[in-house]
């Protein structure tokens, strides 16, 4: 090998090592990995919603792989299905596929790999999980198409996130005993996420009307749509109040639980109110305030567990 070829090989190796982290950042941006902050607290809330035996590390690992795999598959499907609309929309044409920072082969490979990781983790969690594993994948495929059919499309996004606490509960409690709290968590997630997706849709009001994309904002107009969002968030808060009573410590009036529940419910309610009040500033309402709502719900669940005999 000549000196020049050695030098070229060395440069190629260095370039590859530099490019790899860059590609990983591109893939993380493609699936909006930071948005895991919306689903992770709900998943954990489902796990801790009722007392049960401690999960061994292997099951925690499988739950984590299934959660990351499912969420990555959901976002990859969304980006692949919406790539034509994203290319037309000035707000989204800078995304990875329209901007050609990723090619279709990479996107499909990421979808296949994440789906396989999800299915393998489900199989390892138990026979029941693999039997129902198709349900989240079906929801992930269907909800991007809803905006082409109905202004109720926001409920599809809510339904996808509502699966997180149910999945966490089922993973930690395979006997499916005492599902009440997880159902209230799912109801909360459905209303909360659908409500904030309406706020997010205000960014595309003109584009959606021009290109025949259905949304509550394009259908009703900005003001009425935001009122629908407010009603959904009121329903979400109602689910949280019901959750507080359904949690193991919910009926107790002794000790510090009633005060903790009141404070945490007040905090979650305040965050939902601020999200509505600041709806005109979507970046503030969606990405700053909204992300803390899930953690307030998780704190409520953990406080109830701590107040229950036997603790966490």
Q: Globular, elongated, flat, extended or rod-shaped: what is the shape?
A: globular
Report the CATH superfamily of the domain at 151-167 and 176-312.
UbiA prenyltransferase
How much beta, percentage-wise? under 5%
> What's the CATH C level of the domain at 151-167 and 176-312?
Mainly Alpha
Pattern of helices and strands: HHHHHHHHHHHHHH
* Helix-strand makeup class: mainly alpha
Whole-number mean pLDDT: 86
Distance between the termini: 63 Å
CATH arch. level architecture of the domain at 151-167 and 176-312: Up-down Bundle
Strand elements, count = 0
| Main sheet record | none
Can you walk through the features of this model?
Helix 12 packs antiparallel against helix 13. This protein has a domain of 154 residues: UbiA prenyltransferase (Four Helix Bundle (Hemerythrin (Met), subunit A)). 42% of the residues are buried. 76% of the residues lie in helices and 0% in strands. The protein has 312 residues and is mainly α.
């Amino acid at each position: 090998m000549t000196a020049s070829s050695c030098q070229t090989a060395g440069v190629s190796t260095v370039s590859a090592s530099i490019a790899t982290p860059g590609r990983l950042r591109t893939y993380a941006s493609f699936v909006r990995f930071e948005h895991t902050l919306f689903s992770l607290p709900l998943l954990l809330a489902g796990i801790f919603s009722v007392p049960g035996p401690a999960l061994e590390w292997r099951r925690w690992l499988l739950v984590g792989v299934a959660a990351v795999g499912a969420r990555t598959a959901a976002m990859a499907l969304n980006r692949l299905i919406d790539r034509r609309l994203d290319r037309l929309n000035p707000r989204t044409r800078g995304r990875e596929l329209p901007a050609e920072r990723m090619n279709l082969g990479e996107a499909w490979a990421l979808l296949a790999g994440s789906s396989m990781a999800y299915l393998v983790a489900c199989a390892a969690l138990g026979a029941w999980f693999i039997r129902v594993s198709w349900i989240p994948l079906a929801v992930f495929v269907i909800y991007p198409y809803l905006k082409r059919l109905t202004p109720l499309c926001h409920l599809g996004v809510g339904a996808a996130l509502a699966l997180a606490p149910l999945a966490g509960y089922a993973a930690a409690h395979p006997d499916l005993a005492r599902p009440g709290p997880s159902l209230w968590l799912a109801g909360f997630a459905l209303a909360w996420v659908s409500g904030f997706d309406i706020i997010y849709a205000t960014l595309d009001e003109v584009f959606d009307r021009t290109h025949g994309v259905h949304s509550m904002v394009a259908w009703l107009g900005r003001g009425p749509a935001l009122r629908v969002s407010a009603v959904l968030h009121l329903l979400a808060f109602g689910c949280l109040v019901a959750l507080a009573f359904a949690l193991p410590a919910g009926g107790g009036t002794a000790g510090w639980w009633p005060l903790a529940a009141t404070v945490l419910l007040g905090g979650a309610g305040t965050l939902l109110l601020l999200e509505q009040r600041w709806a005109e500033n979507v970046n503030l309402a969606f990405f700053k305030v909204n992300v803390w709502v899930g953690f307030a719900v998780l704190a409520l669940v953990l406080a109830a567990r701590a107040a229950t005999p036997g603790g966490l």
